[in-house]
Amino acid sequence: MLQPELKLRRDKIRWFMAQQGIDAALITCNVNLLYTFGRIVSGYLYLPLNSPALLFIKRPNNISGEHIFSIRKPEQIIELITENNLPMPTKLMLEGDELSYTEYNRLAALFPESEIVNGTPLIRQARSTKTPIEIEMFHRSGIAHAKAYDKIPSVYHPGMTDRELAIEVERLMRLEGSLGIFRVFGQSMEIFMGSLLAGDNAANPSPFDFALGGEGLDPALPVGVNDTPIKEGQCFMVDMGGNFYGYMGDMSRVYSIGKLSDEAYTAHQVCLDIQNEIASIAKPGTVCEDMYNTAIEMVTKAGFAKNFMGIGQQARFIGHGIGLEINEMPVIAPRMKQKLEPGMVFALEPKIVLPGVGPVGVENSWVVTNEGVEKLTICNEEIVEIEVSN
Amino acid sequence: MLQPELKLRRDKIRWFMAQQGIDAALITCNVNLLYTFGRIVSGYLYLPLNSPALLFIKRPNNISGEHIFSIRKPEQIIELITENNLPMPTKLMLEGDELSYTEYNRLAALFPESEIVNGTPLIRQARSTKTPIEIEMFHRSGIAHAKAYDKIPSVYHPGMTDRELAIEVERLMRLEGSLGIFRVFGQSMEIFMGSLLAGDNAANPSPFDFALGGEGLDPALPVGVNDTPIKEGQCFMVDMGGNFYGYMGDMSRVYSIGKLSDEAYTAHQVCLDIQNEIASIAKPGTVCEDMYNTAIEMVTKAGFAKNFMGIGQQARFIGHGIGLEINEMPVIAPRMKQKLEPGMVFALEPKIVLPGVGPVGVENSWVVTNEGVEKLTICNEEIVEIEVSN
């Protein structure tokens, strides 16, 4: 990672710090270190408002450079700040929504004279508008993601279960360069590489706040495939995380085994229409709840409101910011007054679940430009029919 | 999950609570809900010392039963405790090492009259000795894990990179039933399904406190394979997480491309000897640091101390408890005075990294019985030679 890019990112955070009278941040969570230092280490980035950042590294032991110091434990940070002729901060921010209660208190205790505040919302706000280099990572991810999806029909074999097919799709993603790991903000949401939902399993609710659920294979991970055969006349939706360079690109596509009911194609077109309508109104200044309400109006008028974003347990959002984690700001949901800003990247995923058929709809990743939005995941959006062998 | 098993687990936690004068626990982290409720939900298990547990579920919306209540937000918990004729706790424990600072404080604020303490160490202590059903899950995991490893030579092709081979090994694990997800205690350690370390990449340090590191494919996940070709006369070690039923079985095996140097076979045998010596002394009452010191004495005498558990950056442990997470109690490391207890399950992983060759050694999962230890991962422990095609 080039230093100007890292400086740009750190200065985005500093800009918000200045607004809130915060004169230093101590950053240690993986995604925030990746954001501000360009790679994950076991250590701490100390970010003063008006001086260069200091990096304190526990592991690995082979990183050196200006302003980089090797430490064994965080208690050594204080003397190193002093040795670098920096004052103790008056108001310090820590990652309060991400650090454990125990770790937050351990770090806060190092600064007994400082006011300590939760910096997570501020860092997430800074991260919500991407730099040109981050947007380029999403562009590249979208290309690799589409290459993997284009090969999905070739790995399907009649009689496969959803689990067996998901394994082959995961392999396709890995072969195109997916790092595999699926990063989510918060400790409560878990998933493996993403989901493949076939037939009625798409209507099964999960504990997690993803757009759709699925029963899962085991109570230890109750989401996604449930090892049932994929049937003719039904469809499956692939929604794998597209983490090729650390950035969680997001894209869903639908594949059918033979033809589906007419209603399924109608419902799919409703989702495409919703996507295209929202894409046409989305631009800097567009309010997130307005985008959500547009979707609800359209799906209600089309008669699919009860099947929108699940059945029985319906997700209350149609899109979400993406970045180093799958659930960044903004959220496209009811009562969200946040406005789109240039550089924001979000996934938009209108989906309808039809009993006896499966999930239809679409998901793409979008970046907000100065004039509107640009699609980052270019790949056929129709239902891809896999012919039934006779 | 059968109720008697859940009651047994909850009573293990209650036993420690009683010792510390704690009269209730509020549990919400995924692995602890899986442990005490048998499946993951978005919700809270309220565990009073002397009354049945109450379960408050936000999602999914299709779980009902005795003592189960649907809620939208944790603030509803208080009225439901009262409606169930339970007193407010005098001393309540929360998952302080696992919950974020923000979430811990939100939950603590619900109980303004209660003393709040960190319950994570206590729950981890309860979880460190497994029930017979949990041990059975490890037995089954070991069988599936070994089946996948037995097929590794069949997916190797000459000219493969470590990344390409890792993808095929991941697929084998998934086909045998691996859930894929790799659960680690603490927010700082991340890895995809496990690692495959070939040749000199095994000596590359990582930020994470795993036994070995590896450079990784991207600064976003600097651990494991680095896309270099696997060479003749070198070896690779497979160390995939064996999560087939929620329990993180752990096993490492070594495969060579053609013959290795004599030194490599000697070093491998040293690791097997260390494993076997430790297995012969391990029983209830054995002190963890004594096991560690035994390994260090043996590897020093054999002349491989500088290559033990890495080169340059060496791991300071040779084993670790396993369970729902890969890093449970006890830790087999210096200054660890903890004694083995019946029912503890741990991984033992003496490994030596040889420059120009790769990593040798072994890792198995073991359960502590009343008399000694029993191996849970039965699979050929010699270096498996993959013949070089001519």
TrEMBL record, chains A, B:
GO terms for molecular function: aminopeptidase activity. It comes from the Bacteria. The keyword Transmembrane helix does not apply. Keywords: Aminopeptidase, Hydrolase, Protease. SUPFAM superfamilies: Creatinase/aminopeptidase, Creatinase/prolidase N-terminal domain. The keyword Protease applies. InterPro entries: Creatin/AminoP/Spt16_N (IPR029149), Creatinase/aminopeptidase-like (IPR036005), Creatinase_N (IPR000587), Pept_M24 (IPR000994), Peptidase_M24B (IPR050659). Residues 138-370 form the Peptidase M24 domain. Residues 9-128 form the Creatinase N-terminal domain. This is Aminopeptidase P family protein. It comes from Jilunia laotingensis.
